[in-house]
Amino acid sequence: MTGQADRIDEIVTADARRLVDIFKDLHRNPELGFAEVRTARTIAQALGNLGMTVTSGIGGTGVVAVLANGPGPVVMYRADMDALRVPEATGLDYASSNPALGHMCGHDAHVTWMLGLAKVLTETTDSWSGTAVLIGQPAEELITGAKAMVDAGLYDVAPRPDAFLAMHTAPVPVGMVAAVGGERMAGTDQLDIVFHGVGGHGSMPQLTRDPVLMAAQAVMQFQSIVSRSVTPGEIAVLTVGSLQAGSTYNVIPDRAQLQVNLRWFNPEVRDTLLTGIRAICAGIARSFGVDEDQLPEITLAGGATPLVNDTALTERVATALGDLLGKDNVVRQLPALTGSEDCHLLKGPHLDMPLTYLLVGVADPQVYAQSAERGQLFPYTPHAPDYVVDLSAIPLGTKIAARAMLELLTPGRF
């Protein structure tokens, strides 16, 4: 593999300036889930120019590119594309041009790594055999993009993969990778909850049924579900990310909406959370005298099961990356995270497809060390306004993706 590793290094090093420019451009132009029109076009054009068979518009803005190179395994690689409704506060000279949106989770890096990986694949066809399937996935943050692509016919344009690889940025030093088998990420659900009331003048609350107060009580009571209904030792997270109601000072509105996020590993815990939420919402509404036909509406707006890495596949990739980064820089044991993903839903009906999902360090090592000295776990966290992907992580992340992908595109290993 030494010769192949040298070729990867040579190709990516020569391509580094282009990749950094692509990353900066994507970072300046963030797009929300299912609105990644510009990002998807960038992916489709870049992969099409490399000679791949490209299909766009799968599941809205999803992109599928196929590169067939003789007999051998079919390996799928996914990069999610969407940004967040989080204003950027990094101060970078290539910061988001949209004051309301930002790539505060590193999906711009994910796309760039995939485009760099594609160039490596097309320039090393004499050293691998099989079929590469590259996916530009929309709406990961909404936890609906992967399912949308499958439902829209992903496997009508792509062959069934023998293995599946995905990577995500992590706020640990550049040069480190976590490749850990087993259960890695929590299951999640997104809930929209609408309380209905009777609106009126703020000076006469006795004539209203105040949905703002109902929603506020629900926010407080929800916390009792985790503390009093979930078995101690089980992991359960219930977060209210949004409470929206009304438009001015002295008007009690007739509706209030909560957006709630759940995290869980045990399906029984999920059931407990959902049952508790329904009971609390209905109970509060009834206590305010809300009619039975106006009880709160609870809509599941997206979700995913826990992400599980195939142990054998992950160990194989970890060993290959140890040769690239040094064994000490490949973390093979790490507690499962309460973060969530939907990439494994790209498996669709092929539930036995082995997956390895890697966490790739993107923090400046010096910045990370300084934060550690201050007693901080990380210098910044995903979804925070100050989340930064150090530019040195762009070429190195591409090398990691390429090394892992070429390891899996070895005939006779599946």
UniProtKB/TrEMBL annotation:
Binding site for Mn(2+): C105, H107, E141, H168, H383
InterPro entries per UniProt: Amidohydrolase, Bact_exopeptidase_dim_dom, Peptidase_M20, Peptidase_M20_dimer
Domain of life of the native organism: Bacteria
Gene Ontology biological-process entries: diaminopimelate biosynthetic process
A Gene Ontology molecular function term of the record: metal ion binding
PANTHER family: METALLOPEPTIDASE, PUTATIVE (AFU_ORTHOLOGUE AFUA_6G09600)-RELATED (PTHR11014:SF63), PEPTIDASE M20 FAMILY MEMBER (PTHR11014)
Name of the protein: Amidohydrolase
Species of the source: Mycolicibacter minnesotensis
